[in-house]
């Protein structure tokens, strides 16, 4: 039987399969070789959609439930809970993950024209920060989900180490690379000795000088952007008649993907309705109520992400909130993004420094930084990281495919 290598990401996923002596990425949605990590349970038509189609069906207003960022639930007690699908049925979060993994495995089997029962799965350096037991549990939950779809032999590899293998495959000399994998949910760093001679070995433990990660990445920037722009127009940080800040929980929940649905619970909606007297500007309350009544939370979060990507490489954009209120438009530029996310940027750069420091290596000994993960498209962020290592060459990999390719390289060594 054949094997595959799965990059199950918070935001995007991909799967690599052997292709003769080489590797290829399997098409996972039409011709695309990466897809958003999302499943839409369409209760209108009793179907399931994956990836872009899932997001599309949700936006088109079909009845049902959109599940995204399922990876972030791993390691939390919530993972074994069930979530309502809206038609009276319910499903466990870990089963949603299994359904998604099954989609990836089937895509891999189709691409390889063979059944698959072995896999290398990527994992972040930490699923859960500062809690080794929860972290262990997260990996176990992911493994159980993978087994439930027929993968019998499973190996894990750290995502940034996989990216290092991808980088290494294009190098001709030895060096010390700091891999910066800045994704949706986590920013992971690994300091790895790479080189053509080292590539021949399967066991590379000694070449990994340090790895370190933090739970701060793309979705945290989205949150900051949403709070600083859109949600301010709905009363976030506004003061009540007595000069106190309006209770902010609803805003934080609206800005957090997996909590958005909690805001729509009838009890919360009526509580929010009763808060009207606290709003010095009633238009803020009107907009907030329109958002919860029309269930626009996910759409607002998507606007924040779009705005972030829109200015990622410098420039400006407009956030169009027509669905909340006619002609409500907010200008947004890179300077605002930098300011909204300064704390995140600082923490990510610090994690990179800590990684190198843990290894007992001087910043100057790092010969290259290899950037991968969607959030390395944020020019100010990769710039801040590069500035912390002035002697390192900045190398940009394929933002969304390096990890899957690197996991494939590892799988070939393990299974061949
Ligand atoms: N052009 C871009 N510029 C900036 N950010 C981007 C761009 N494209 C995608 N992103 C962001 O990249 C993130 C997703 O990156 P990626 O697909 O690498 O994450 P992931 O692998 O799913 O997550 P993780 O590795 O944390 O589990 C999202 O937050 C998305 O908004
Ligand atoms: Mg990733």
Automatic annotation (TrEMBL):
Membrane-traversing stretches: none
Molecular functions (GO terms): ATP binding; ATP-dependent protein folding chaperone
UniProt KW keywords: ATP-binding, Nucleotide-binding
Pfam families, per database record: HSP70
Keyword ATP-binding set for record: yes
Cell cycle listed as a keyword: no
Name of the protein in its database record: Chaperone protein HscA
Organism: Paraburkholderia rhynchosiae
Gene that encodes it: hscA_2
């Amino acid at each position: 039987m054949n094997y595959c290598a799965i990059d199950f990401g918070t935001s995007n996923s991909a799967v690599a399969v052997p292709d003769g002596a080489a590797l290829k990425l399997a098409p996972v949605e039409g011709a695309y070789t990466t897809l958003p990590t999302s499943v839409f349970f369409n209760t209108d038509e009793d179907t399931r959609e994956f990836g872009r189609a899932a997001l599309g069906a949700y936006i088109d207003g079909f009845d049902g439930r959109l599940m995204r960022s399922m990876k972030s639930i791993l390691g939390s007690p919530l993972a074994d809970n069930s979530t309502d699908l809206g038609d009276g049925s319910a499903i466990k979060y870990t089963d949603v993950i299994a359904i998604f993994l099954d989609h990836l495995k089937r895509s891999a089997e189709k691409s390889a024209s063979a059944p698959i029962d072995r896999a290398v799965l990527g994992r972040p350096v930490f699923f859960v920060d500062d809690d080794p037991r929860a972290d262990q549990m997260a990996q176990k939950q992911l493994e159980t989900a993978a087994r439930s779809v027929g993968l019998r032999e499973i190996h894990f590899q750290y995502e940034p180490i996989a990216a290092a293998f991808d980088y290494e495959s294009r190098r001709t000399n030895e060096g010390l690379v700091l891999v910066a994998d800045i994704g949706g949910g986590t920013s992971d760093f690994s300091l790895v000795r790479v080189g053509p001679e080292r590539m021949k070995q399967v066991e590379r433990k000694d070449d990994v000088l340090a790895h370190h990660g933090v739970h701060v990445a793309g979705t945290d920037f989205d949150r900051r952007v949403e709070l600083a722009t859109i949600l301010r127009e709905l009363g976030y940080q506004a003061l009540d008649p007595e000069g106190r800040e309006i209770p902010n929980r609803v805003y934080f929940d609206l800005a957090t993907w997996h909590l958005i649905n909690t805001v729509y619970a009838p009890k919360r909606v009526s509580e929010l309705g009763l808060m009207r007297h606290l709003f010095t500007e009633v238009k803020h309350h009107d907009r907030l109520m329109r958002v919860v009544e029309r269930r626009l939370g996910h759409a607002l979060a998507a606007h924040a992400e779009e705005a972030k990507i829109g200015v990622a490489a410098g420039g400006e954009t407009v956030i169009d909130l027509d669905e909340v209120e006619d002609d409500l438009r907010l200008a947004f530029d890179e300077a605002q993004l930098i300011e909204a996310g300064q704390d995140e940027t600082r923490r990510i750069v610090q994690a990179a420094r800590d990684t190198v420091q843990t290894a007992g290596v001087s910043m100057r000994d790092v010969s290259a930084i290899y950037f991968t993960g969607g959030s390395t498209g944020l020019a100010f962020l990769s710039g801040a990281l590069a500035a912390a290592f002035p002697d390192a060459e900045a190398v940009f990999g394929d933002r969304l495919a390096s990890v899957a390719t690197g996991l494939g390289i590892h799988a070939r060594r393990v299974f061949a």
